[in-house]
Amino acid sequence: MPSSRPDRIRKLLADLVGFDTISDRTNLPLIAHIESYLASFGIRGERITDDTGQKASLWVTIGPQDLPGFVLSGHTDVVPVVGQDWSHDPFKLIERDGKLYGRGTTDMKGFVAVCLAMVPEMVEAKLATPIHLAISYDEEIGCVGVRPMLREVAKKTVRPLGAFIGEPTQMQVIIGHKGKHGVRATFHGLARHSSIAPDGVNAIEYAADLIAEIRRRAGKLAAVRSNDSLYDVPHSTLLTSIVHGGAALNIVPDTCTVEFECRGIGITESREVTDAIVAWAKAEIEPAMKARHPDCGIDFEEILDYPALDTAADAAIVTLAKSLAGRNDHAKVAFGTEASLFASIADIPSVVIGPGAIAQAHTPDEFVEMAELEKCAGFVERLIAHCAKA
Q1: How many whole angstroms separate alpha carbon 180 and alpha carbon 268?
Q2: 315-342 per-position pLDDT tens digit
Q3: Phi/psi of residue 288, each to 5°?
Q4: Which residues pair with 22 in a beta bridge?
Q5: Which neighbouring-strand residues pair with 305?
Q6: Counting C-beta atoms within 10 Å of the first and last residue's C-beta, which end of the chain has fewer, N or C?
Q7: CA triplet 135, 23, 41: central angle to 5 degrees?
């Protein structure tokens, strides 16, 4: 392992990017690699494996095992690269002009690499307050992997003092983000030849009624502006994002699926908004379908859910984050993170702070600037100094 901190970060990030951890694939080789790296310092983590045995989170404690400490948290999965115009292999780290290119460099293997690169300093500091590494899976498809890990953490006799979730914020302290609830509605109609269309039940046309109602309610949400000026979009949002239906031009469509989401400012607002839409559809659309044929109707399925984050601006974890980051400002963002689950599942006060810009996440030729990673390393270095004080 290279001795200089920047070289350690580069090497570790290259290793992490080299593992194809798109969410539909196993992350176990990456987890094993991290475990092997930690073992070289005499550190052993706790694996939390999913029901398939193909995914695992890793909970690591460096320092005292029986005292409350601070969490550095990142996810190992990345979004797909199919259909994106990459100028090089997305799973091979490339450095040009101070930028490190590769899938996940910003979101969010860069942060994980920094945390791992700082492990030697953590060990050498003989921490009085422990530092935990929380490394999860399947964040990109609904913050799936962090939940069982946090349920295990919640059972421990000592609860961490706070958590820093390293999503890309250009090292700005984020104290809040919107929640999200996603729903899939499957409309079951009745197929007929289009020449006798009145004898069928058109699933797409009934789905269109739902889409129109979603749009109408989205307009009402947009008209209710939050007095929280920290959000760039100062209201809850609602939209239809995916629609599938129909088989041929001359067939009355018997199936149509509609996926829609709400991103709510309030802790539970996302679910409240979508629940109200589901109730409306069951009362207004489904009876009309069943009146045409009793086998017709709508099935609703939750496809994603996480609460909003709303950490008080004067909370101790916020004050500490600002001190470690060397800045006094804070903000809120529209995109979701695992931070709200640290707060809601394990009652761990949390903020979001990490290297890189969210604008780079999920893009072709994704990159993170080396300067951002070095700023993040400085943040972790100051956290180590804070935790080394008796």
Answers
A1: 9
A2: 999 999 999 999 999 999 989 999 999 9
A3: -65, -35
A4: 78
A5: 181
A6: C
A7: 25
Q: Which helix (H) or strand (E) holds 329?
A: none
Q: Which domains does the chain have, with CATH numbers?
A: 5-177+308-388 (3.40.630.10), 179-305 (3.30.70.360)
Q: What are phi and psi of 126, to 5 degrees?
A: 50, 65
172-219 pLDDT, tens digit per residue, is 999 999 999 999 999 999 999 999 999 999 999 999 999 999 999 999
Q: Is 179 exposed, middle or buried (0-12, 13-18, 19+ CB in 10 A)?
A: buried
**What are the tens digits of pLDDT across the range 230-247?**
887 889 999 999 999 999
* Contact present, 110 and 353 (Cβ < 8 Å): no
Six-digit token string for 36 = 């092997």
The rounded distance, in Å, linking the Cα atoms of 204 and 243 is: 9
Q: How many CB atoms lie within 10 A of CB 301?
A: 11
Cα 124 to Cα 122: distance, rounded to the nearest angstrom:
6
Residue whose C-alpha is closest to residue 34's, from 25, 42, 24, 45: 45
Q: Residue written as tokens 């307050």?
A: 129
Q: Give the tokens for residue 372.
A: 């951002």
**Distance from the Cα of residue 188 to its chain's centroid:** 32
- Cα–Cα distance, 298 to 207 (Å, whole number): 9
DSSP reduced 3-state for 112: helix
**Tokens coding 266:** 């309030």
